[in-house]
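Before going further, learn to read the protein records used in this course. The integers have meaning only within a learned vocabulary of local backbone shapes. To see the layout at work, look at the sequence and tokens printed below.
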Amino acid sequence: MKILTIQNADLTPSGVIGDAIAEAGGVEDVRFPEHGDTLPADVSGHDGLLVLGGTQHAADDAAHPYLPAELAAIRAFAVAGKPVLGICLGSQLLARALGGAVRRHHTPEIGFTAIEATIAAETDPLLQGLALPRLMHWHFDTFDLPEGATLLATNAACPNQAFTAGPGVYGLQFHLEITADIVQGWIDVSPEWTQQQFPAFFASHRDQLAEHVPASIRFAREVGRRWMEMVSAARARSQQAA
């Protein structure tokens, strides 16, 4: 199984989700549009799409002229019935690609935050039966759900935390792919800025990492495994139809 992975920032790799892809027998084809990588003209060479986070504002095509190509890729995979997983910026781009509005949120969400599953999550194949641990957030934007999408997780700070827009198509606002090293790398890039803008998180981040990363990794591995089962099933259906 071949997964097209769109990486949007140097310090935001696929992390634990990438590990889950490999464990399921998948191979990532990583493209980095910000560094000039092009995206495939069609979806025939890939079985699923993973869209990762980044510092970009999901609606700012002028500053990031490759975003329309990312949106087109997301739509193409979704229309073809191939699974899509968008994480943080990737969830915002997924929402936008399917018709939802993206905007700056009134309050940045930084650190490990509690989220709550909706009733719909109880029967959703990605999340059913899973306890939601505190999960890492680092975002300034939010989005409206696309028409027909189903909300799967929420919290008071940012209501749209997870949604599905069809079989295998998911947007997750939180960073379930992180390891402690990944988050520490974000802080180390600009520690003075982080301390100034988010003093409470900066002061407690090492404790937060120690306390919450193990449960986050367990959760991410299971979510990644389940998503890859959807990729495998979609691939089998496509082969049968050919």
